[in-house]
Design brief:
The protein contains 2 helices and 26 strands. It is mostly beta strands and 387 residues long.
């Protein structure tokens, strides 16, 4: 087989962001898929083992290799016809957790050099979501892309398929701060609404401290002001203790435009009331899973209702650290563009081309046994592009 190429519409959003311009015809956004049976795939070192035992593989099967010293490698190569920044995804099949590496090293070779991403192949997945495309990151390519997996891991590794999705030109930049619209230094609770029967939110040492006390229900802290579309939200998140599962919700509004605090029935923190509620629409993004009991590692972006998983990042954007650890979080919502940065490093990039949500509220959610503080909340307009 040859590498598989498709093209999908690229949502043109800049004309709609500032000045009320008219949307132009959307250019095409290339997607490249290289499977382990394609000419762009190769292996080195000891023979890799072909298999179709575990379901969910792409194409006609997959390869696996026992852990070793890294001398056995699988490589996917793709010619780049349209230079730009691409989301790079990998796919693997799920087996028994004890049969898969928790630190499989993928090396992405781009014009920025070699970037290594360690992935947990043993993470649990639901039966309905077997072997999805897992985001490894966003990387710049000009003429060729190379993704390499080695067996320098703590258990067996799997080579199936990779996907490259064009996101933007090489000279594009992350949308920057414009006019400051809202700010909260979290000195009081005036701007916060807490809901959830098994948790609390309070001001401690000049920060909003949210504590969840249940494995069954969570606690939610909503920022009361409604936000416009096209914003850059920044805040500091400090994780206290060895555990935590944190999410951020945004563009939250009733499906008929209702205010989610005053215009919808009260909620008690049950997850389904936010993600499978036909009266409420929003996005939610998991940003921290340290020591949690969640299904997978990494950052998942969902579009609700229906808890529609639209993008999965294979790596926890806020990895475990000793003691209290503070992360500077940046969430950009620009038309259909959704981007997460942690400590100014891009983590997740998605373009919603299916009627993206706008406006509404944002807020923080926690579940399991966790204590996290939030501070220095800022909401900016997205700056107009230079020129």
């Amino acid at each position: 087989m040859r590498p598989f190429f498709v093209a999908v519409p690229l949502l043109v959003i800049l004309a709609l962001v500032i000045g009320g311009g008219q949307a132009q015809a959307a250019p095409e956004r290339p997607i490249i898929i290289v499977d382990n049976a394609d000419a762009g795939f190769s292996t080195t070192g000891a023979d890799w083992n072909p298999s179709t035992r575990d379901p969910g593989f792409y194409g006609e099967g997959y390869l696996w290799q026992r852990m070793g010293d890294g001398s056995s490698k699988a490589m996917w190569r793709a010619a780049i016809a349209q230079p730009g920044r691409y989301n790079v995804y990998a796919r693997w099949v799920m087996s028994k957790p004890e049969d898969r590496a928790t630190n499989a090293p993928f090396t992405i070779r781009s014009i920025d050099g070699d970037g290594v991403v360690h992935v947990n192949l043993a993470q649990r997945q639901s039966a309905a979501d077997q072997s999805p495309w897992n985001l490894l990151g966003t990387f710049p390519f000009e003429k060729q892309a190379e993704i390499v997996l080695s067996n320098d891991a703590d258990n067996s590794v799997v080579a199936d398929a990779v996907k490259l999705e064009y996101m933007e030109p090489l000279d594009a930049t992350v949308p920057q701060r414009g006019k400051l619209l809202l700010q909260d230094d979290c000195d009081n609770m005036d701007n916060w609404f807490i809901e959830g029967s098994e948790g609390k939110g309070e001001i401690v040492n000049g920060a909003l401290r949210v504590t969840s006390t249940s494995h069954r229900k969570g606690v939610h802290a909503w920022f009361r002001p409604d936000l416009p579309d096209n914003v850059r939200i920044e805040y500091d998140m400090t994780v206290h203790g060895p555990k935590g599962f944190a999410l951020v919700f945004f563009c939250a509004k009733g499906t008929k435009g209702q205010d989610i605090i005053t215009g919808l029935p009260a909620r008690d923190g049950t997850f389904s009331q936010y993600v499978r509620n036909d009266d409420l629409r929003c996005y939610h993004l998991s940003v921290h899973r340290m020591g949690s009991e969640s299904w997978v590692d990494g950052a998942n972006l969902n579009k609700n209702p229906a808890k529609n998983l639209v993008q999965r990042n294979a790596v926890d954007p806020c990895p475990p650290a000793e003691g209290d650890q503070t992360y500077h979080m940046t969430l950009i919502k620009l038309g259909g563009r959704i981007q997460l940065l942690v400590d100014d490093k891009p983590v997740l990039f998605y373009i919603d081309e299916a009627e993206p949500y706008a406006g509404g509220k944002f807020g923080f959610r926690q579940i399991y046994l966790s204590t996290i503080s939030y501070d220095n909340v800022r909401v900016y307009e997205v700056a107009a592009p230079e020129g």
